[in-house]
Amino acid sequence: MTPDSQPTFRLRPEQQAIVHSYSGGKLGIAAVPGSGKTFTLAHLAARLISRSRLKPDQEVLVVTYTNSAVNSFRARIAQILTQDYGLIGHIGYRVRTLHGLARDIVYERPALVGLADDFLILDEKESQEIQRDSVTQRLAEWRDVLAQYLDPEVDSRWAWHSFEGILPQLAGNFIRQAKDLRRAPDDLLALLPPEGTGLGLTRFALSVYADYQRSLAYRGAVDFDDLVRLALDALEREPEYLERLRQRWPYILEDEAQDSSRLQEEMLRLLSGERNWVRVGDPNQAIYTTFTTANPGFLRRFLDREDVDEKPLSVSGRSAQPILDLANELVRWTAEDHPAPALRTTFEYQPRAAHGPVRGIIHPTEEDDPDPNPPDDVCHIELRYRPNEKISASAELEYVISGAEHPLLDFGQDAPQVPQETVAVLVPDNNRGFALAEKLRKDHKDVPFEELLRSSMRTRQSVRRLLDILEYLCEPTHPKKLKKAFWAQLSDERRELVTADTATTATLTRYFASATTVEEFLWPRDPGAALVLPEFAPDYAWVGEELARFQTGIRRWLQGTDLPIDQVILTIAQDVFAAPADLALGHKVATTLRALAASHPDWRLAQFAEELKSINENKRRFLGFDDSEIGYVPKPGVVTIATMHAAKGLEWDRVYLLAVSGYDFPSGMPYDRYIAERQFTRFSADGSMARLNLEAELLAQLDYLVGALPAYEEGVATLEARVERARERLRLFYVGITRARHELIVSWNSGRYAHKGASFENPPALPLIHLGTYNEYGEG
Amino acid sequence: MPFTRFIEGPAGVGKTTRAIQHVRDLLDAGARGDEMLVLVPQRALGWPYARAFTDPAWPSGTSIDVVTLGGLARRSLETFWPLVAERAGFAQPGLDPLFLTVETAQYFMARLVLDAQRTGVFDSISISPFAIMRQTLDNLSKAAVSQLPLDEVADRLIAAWGDRHSSRPPVYRACLDVARQFREHCLHYSLLDFSLQIEVFTRTLLSEPLYVRYLRSHYRHLVADNLDEEFSAVGDFIRWLLPGLESALLLYDTDGGVRRFLGAAPAEMRTLAELADEREEWREPVVAPPEMVSFAEALSSAIVPQAAAPAALAAVSLDQVLTVHSARFFPQMVDWAVAGIAGLVQAGVPPREIVIVAPFMSDSLRFALTTRLDEHGIATVSHRPSRALREEPQARVMLTWMALAHPHWGIAPPVQDVADALSRSIAGLDPVRAWLLAQIVYRPGQPELGSFDRIQSATQQRITYVAGKRYERLRAWLDAYRQTDSGDIPPDHFFSRLFGEVLSQPDFGFHSDAEAGRIIAELVASARKFRQTLYPDGAVDGWDDVLRDYFTLVQQGLLAALYLTSWRDEQQDAVFLAPAYTFLMRNRWVDYQFWLDVGSSTWWERLEQPLTHPYVLARECPPGQVWTDQMEVAARDDALRRLLLGLLRRCRRHVYAAIAELGEQGYEQRGPLLRILQQLRQASLGTQP
A359: closest CA among A753, A12, A32, A742? Predict the structure, then answer.
């Protein structure tokens, strides 16, 4: 294929207008869900690489927000370059997450920002542990000050205990925000008014912040938030370096720009030199705004700038028309009719192109579209809301599994015909997902499902195997753990084969049971009396070889448990893994644990096993090496259980949205309850009858301290946070709806504590009520 | 003036061979071996001489000094100490000098740095105390080798950042304070770290008439090899020494100077040529084939266009000398390299003709390569930098017993450590039985180990009576020590006794373990140096605190074990694994080179440290120089060019370059070397018919 021939993939007119007409300058794109923004951006990147005559040391820089997005971007650009332009697939561009990019910048000139070349990047878990330690140490000193935030009417022991539990998180939010403001502990300390003038929470958080930074410095480490801040410092301090990077990256394409924070935007602004900067995002899908530094306002302001060319991506072929209508109605209703006026600016909504392109409306595809909307006749919408009807939390699960018109049982292996569709149950939080998974596991074994609630399956399986072996090595006399280690040593395929054959499994069980003790199994006193390997059926003769291999392997691993941890892991990984991705994961685990060992000289196998468990449970994430190489791909016939947040960027034929209640999706109504206004905090002094939202109050105190607020008035931030929370949840609901291709089932429940009385009941979310009416009676 | 010849040329043109022949000619002409001084920048660069001089064909009975300036300084100071001690400012001239290694210098430095750090002076930078310590020592060394006053180090570093870092000057001053305190301590106790050895030698001893007479009458001939890697102080020394010699042969590698990050001053050293009676420029390679030379030139001009003549790529068929392989994951890259090496060895290539280099060789990578090659029966030899003592399993065993021998410290090792210590200490006790025994006899928090005799007989049987008996002997030793000597002997004595009286005896784990013996010897030496450095006059109230201090420093990873491979090790028929710079410092030639991790930007990035700076601390850099990004890039480009030229000129047949798209840490790699190789490949393809 020559550069002038037609691309393999047909672009829609809007996409063409972007890909073929852009040659430079600032371009803003407000994209609706399913409009193909990654696809368009990848084509644009490929075209720029082929047409803009980059020098050998120049690259198109593509920035996005998740590692899996990096991988899919890279794969897509490589494919387009090869197939459509006949170029080498991996030259001329660089795809990075924002943190990855910041790391690149700092890593190239670490001394500029006071780091050594071998600086460590602590992940969130490690950072949180340091912060928790500091909170624990500081608690006694600050007890009197902090106690002033508790409700004197509630049981003080319970209140204090609960308060203690959230303090590390409060301090963590404070630290993140302070870093976003680029304020070091010393700067803030200098701004503090004299003792006794309030801001107690801030004084406490600041002491933790100072401890934390000292602790990072001692380790020669930085955290994720430091990366962007330090990258910015480096660029500002060394204009020549900045200029060099500008030369290196003449074009910057930014995806998911609605999730950008002030610092991140500033970093890209500097790097682009305001020259060739393309920002794509959907402000209506900004779902990470509460107590984070992300803000869709940055993208909006960019789109509104006069020197920015705005182009729409408003056509989406993802969902059937009735589902698009529902999503559009949610936006319209919120903008025009929401009973809480403060929420009417939640969505970007320009139905008429008064000041530029239409924003916030999803348009269906044209007739000849290569990827058209599913037809209306296969569309099914079920909004489980009836006035005055209550539904308990467990009844909601029953409803989804078996009571709905299109229930999950459709996917049971016992169903007359299992649909070959993709299906997801999306929940507002992990706990609701665990409850459903538990119920399916217990009562509906025939419904296959996978949880997207933690890390990906593949990583978990591989890390699990390492973990099982490590757990045995921590307790080498434990026979059950020994057996588990044997299973872990088997490859996935072989394990499945053995599990499928009951005779082989039974032989193995007998064999392990026949060893009187583990030491006799591994190191018999009398080698002549060693256990004889059992006989297996001819098809399973290899199991005997696996057993022999296991005995040799485990002896070797046991003899090496006092080696440095990376060598322990590498030895095991090299013995048990065959797939390249698994081996690479093993190598990464080894180097990660090795880095941890440097800052925890007292750690032994047991602590490292705990860490592996954290990785397995996704409490510790790997920067730069995602769980999934290509991101999650839903499997037909298998139910995906995921949070609505995790579902972003994905789509399924059928989608269930659960727990769409006033608690999870508040609407700024007086009767709404808010998760961040905890039962143990006292009521605001302003008489608003709101319990203090400590996160919001703390950040407001910080804003006041740095002069971003003229005054700090207790309670104001709590009320503002209510609005912000309601906005974010409206957008989350929108994201949930727009995941469905042609079937959408939405339900709610009255909560776990409904039995305690009306004030504990969760009402259905206001937008659900409205959409229920809309769906039933149509517009008006 | 002597007859001085200056030979300049790239690596692989036969300069060192010529120098060895020169020495031989001098000997044949009647000169004595001990009248010759062979000066090299690093011990390893002297190995070709050491090998030649020990060759059976070499005249016997010739003892020729092959030394570095540091080695010469040390030896001279040892001998002439009474002459200089007082003049050089040592407070107790009667105290014998103790020469510190980098590791032992850290013992005292660690304490100073930790004290300074507690005051918050280093808060505006984020580096570990270990790194502060290393960089402060580095500044001392650089000041010495560039012959700069200490104050100027801080001034130069402050100036380098210009007005970009208002927070930096106090940090550099704090660093200078720590360096001064360290220096004072050394002067007080006659301790000589590398910087003080050089300074006392160059500033004091070389102006001591007696020594000058001795030196001038002793050496008549000088050979100085790899001058491009030498420090300013060496240049000064050669200038000082030359007038009294009969002959001097000075050798300079045109594109060498890869040690600039350590303070080498290649441009300044090249000016020595001005002193020569005869200058020769050698260009004809005797090692690398023409294709490799063309490849090297093309690579050089792709990095720094003005540095070399226009590349003659048209004439190069890159495939003859270069194979590039791209793997997605890091271990796949390692496997590819291992398979390639296995293939070569199978085809009859001796392993010593193969080297694996990477810009940075982590312990994990080294381990992965060694074990995989081992599976193919291919031996490896590796220069491993020192690593923390606590990471050596045998050292950990000793530390565990040390903690248990001093229960009043309140340090309870984890059960796993006790199980590991039992398993390694008692011959025939496997890890499972050791674990079982540890679970029963050891309770963290309880001062003493339980008796084997009190264990239920069924469990005794499981552990075996033989092992039980041996355990009891070990326990009895610990008991006896606790009762009689606890805290009364220094740490090195403790280790020596435990090893000598128990662990090296028959029935114990280290009895026939040569590796353990070597590591324990390192440990004893480290503990002895620790004692001598911190308590040089032995004036302590009791050794208990010292023992405990030592234990804590090792646990914190602040003390390291040193491993130095010798040229005899590297003579083995084994594949050599090393960081690229280390390989160059061996000055070896091989048939095949495997370059790993070619996509990594660390090929190009220097080890950038916030508290030190090799370029602005070089004497050739004008004081007050602001170090700009442009200079940084030019320095890195130049370093990469020199590095690659150095590698290619030491390769006789073929380079295998391996790329891992995702690096060791999982990051996508887009380093400059990858880009340059791709550029060359494309250019090469473009010239193919």
Answer: A32
Which of B135, B328, B416 comes nearest A580 by C-beta?
Answer: B328
Number of domains within chain B = 4
Residue numbers in A near B672 (CB within 8 A): 57
A103 and B667 within 8 Å at the Cβ level: the answer is yes
B195 in a structural domain: no
SS3 readout for A182-247 = CCCHHHHHHHCCCCCCCCHHHHHHHHHHHHHHHHHHHHCEEEHHHHHHHHHHHHHHCHHHHHHHHH
Residues B417 and B547 in one domain: yes
Q: Could you say which of A241, A584, A591 has the minimum Cβ distance to residue B629? A: A241
The torsion of the CA quartet B309, B313, B318, B320, rounded to 10 degrees, works out to -80
Residue with tokens 């030979």: B7
Answer yes or no: do B317 and B421 share one domain: no
Cβ distance A94 to B331 less than 8 Å, yes or no, reads: no
CATH class of A13-108+228-313: alpha beta
Is the domain of B179 the same as that of B263? no
Q: Which residues pair with A359 in a beta bridge?
A: A350
- Cα–Cα distance between B278 and B256 in angstroms, integer? 21
- Pick from A561, A554, A533, A423: nearest CA to A483: A554
Domain A377-454+622-766 sits in CATH at 3.40.50.300
Distance from CA of B665 to the nearest CA of A (A): 6
Cβ neighbour number for residue B592 with a 10 Å cutoff: 19
Do A609 and A470 form a contact (C-beta atoms < 8 A)?
yes
The 10s digit of each residue's pLDDT in A699-734 is 999 999 999 999 998 999 999 999 999 999 999 999
Confidence (pTM) = 0.82
Residues B356 and B500 in one domain: no
Domain holding B277, by residue range, is 3-75+201-281
Q: Is B128 on the interface with A (CB under 8 A)?
A: yes
pLDDT digits (tens, 9 = 90+) for A423-434: 999 999 888 888
- Chain A CB contacts of B665 below 8 Å: 588, 591, 624-625
- Assess whether B398 and B535 both reside in one domain: yes
CB contact B607 to A (< 8 Å): yes
**Residue A726 contacts by C-beta under 8 Å, 6 or more apart in sequence?**
A340, A343, A346, A665, A666, A667, A668, A672
CA distance A716 to A709: 11
- Tokens in use for A167? 């303090």
B532 and B596 co-located in one domain: no
Pairing relation of β-strands B387-388 and B560-561? antiparallel
User: What was the pLDDT predicted at A455?
Assistant: 47
Q: What is the largest CA-CA distance in chain A?
A: 91
pLDDT of A779 reads: 57
